[in-house]
Design brief:
There is one protein chain. By secondary structure, the chain is α/β, with parallel strands linked by helices. The chain is built from 14 helices and 17 strands. It has two domains: about 130 residues, Alpha-Beta Complex (Aspartate Aminotransferase, domain 1), CATH 3.90.1150; about 250 residues, 3-Layer(aba) Sandwich (Aspartate Aminotransferase, domain 2), CATH 3.40.640.10. A hairpin with a 2-residue loop joins strand 2 and strand 3. The chain is globular, with a radius of gyration of 22 Å. The termini are close together.
Length: about 450
């Protein structure tokens, strides 16, 4: 275990292997505390769940990030998923430069919107119509609005531990950063706002059936992360998604796949392609923006035709479809279509997960490890993790110690036990070997 010590103006962590100098990061964090709530602009970044202060990153390069003190880490956060080609990929950067030279925003249609939409729909044919927005939160919020308008019903079913952005109706047992900060719900959300949100157990189709029956004719949609990535990585059971498809069809509700994280991450066509289950609506983000802010929602033509100006459901955004994000997203998806790319990505995630499992077994540390496409996840737990309740039984203290030890050995993981890990096309044999060695040392008794 590390011991916090004061040195000069900075806080360091003292390890058996030596000192990690984060003096500049700590000095910047002291300034940030006076400017931002908790010193950060998104809660999980604050390192509250793992101890210490957040690192301030100066630059990213391929599979690595370099902090302001010059420390270099293999990055398995990758901006929380979007950077599937790694940091500063030349083709993506060039697309952004070229777009910026033509102007950063028009507030009007551009050809780049069409190119990106066509690339997405080619892999996700369930999106017969698509609307670009500026964030995943906005995408999910809009999809729910459309589902309610289409069904003329108010209630939605979500799953405990699944995070769908910070819109008021969805901050109920939302996992991810909410869990990291021990906030089961958020103050400021009126009870009436969440009164139509029903919460089911992930991987429990029988519970969903019970809720649909108890609220017959009232449920507009079932909203799910088809592969849960915000309670840690939790895979769907063998028939779970197919059961949701059957139940929603039987009850006249829509099935919404939140693929903000899994879209182009678990497979080129997302989880719906991987598990061969077609939702009515899909939300996207992260990868489709190539590292720039973006979101999208889309689905069946008869549902999406309700969106203004074609229909009465209002949705608008000044920066929706902005040319920088559209060009960066199209460049990213073009790279993913190259021969052999997906095979390499899946192999990198699988081998990373296997390396962690091997290191834990050698150290007699109980761990549950999984992977899907280019994502991987782990829990320090005795029993398999299938839902939010079982995820909550993981050993958070062991995770925090492991996180800090991995950081000491040059591996940057998400600073929360309830987040997934990601690999990129830039993660190769050298990075895998460094991860394997770091995990063995971090878990050594």
């Amino acid at each position: 275990m590390p011991r916090a010590v004061r040195g000069g103006r900075g806080l360091f962590y003292s390890w058996a292997a030596g000192l990690v100098n984060t003096e500049t990061s700590n000095r910047l964090f002291e300034k940030a505390l006076a400017l931002f709530p908790g010193g950060v602009n998104s809660p999980v970044r604050a390192f509250r769940a793992v101890g210490g202060h957040p690192l301030f990153i100066r630059r990213g390069e391929g599979a690595y990030v370099v902090d302001v003190d010059g420390n270099r880490y293999v990055d398995y956060v990758l901006s929380w998923g979007p950077l599937i080609l790694g940091h500063a990929h030349r083709a993506v950067l060039q697309s952004i430069v070229d777009a910026a030279m033509d102007g950063t925003s028009y507030g009007a249609p551009s050809p780049a919107e069409i190119e990106l939409a066509e690339r997405i729909i080619a892999h996700m044919p369930s999106l017969e119509r698509i609307r670009f927005v500026s964030s995943g939160t906005e995408a999910v919020m809009s999809a729910i609005r459309v589902a309610r308008a289409y069904t003329k019903r108010a209630k939605i079913i979500k799953f405990a531990g699944c995070y769908h952005g910070h819109a008021d109706p969805l901050l109920v047992q939302a996992g991810s950063g909410v869990a990291t900060l021990s906030l089961p719900d958020s103050p400021g959300v009126p009870p009436a706002t969440v009164s139509d949100t029903l919460v089911a157990r992930y991987n429990d189709a029988n519970h969903v059936a019970e809720l649909l029956a108890a609220h017959a004719g009232q449920v507009a949609a079932v909203l799910v992360e088809p592969v849960a990535g915000n309670m840690g990585l939790v895979l769907p059971g063998p028939s779970f998604l197919a059961d949701l498809r059957r139940l929603t069809a039987e009850h006249g509700a829509l099935l919404i796949f939140d693929e903000v994280m899994t879209g182009f991450r678990v497979a080129p066509g997302g989880a719906q392609a991987l598990y061969r289950v077609t939702p009515d609506l899909t939300t996207l983000g992260k990868v489709i923006g190539g590292g720039l802010p973006v979101g999208a929602f889309g689905g069946r033509r008869d549902v999406m035709q309700l969106v203004a100006p074609e229909g009465p459901v209002y949705q608008a955004g000044t920066l929706s479809g902005n040319p920088l994000a559209m060009r960066a997203g199209a460049a990213t998806l073009a790279q993913l279509d190259r021969a052999g790319v997906w095979t390499s990505l899946e192999e990198a995630a699988r081998e990373t997960a296997a390396a962690l499992e091997t290191a834990a077994r050698a150290a007699s540390v109980p761990v549950q490890v999984s992977h899907a496409g280019s994502m991987f996840g782990f829990f320090f737990a005795e029993s398999p993790v299938i839902d939010w309740e079982s995820a909550g039984r993981c050993n958070r203290e062991r995770f925090a110690a492991f996180f800090r030890a991995m950081l000491q050995h040059g591996i940057y993981l998400a600073p929360s036990a309830f987040e997934a890990g990601f690999v990129s096309t830039a993660h190769g044999p050298a990075e895998l070997e460094r991860f394997r060695d770091a995990a063995a040392q971090a878990l050594r008794p």
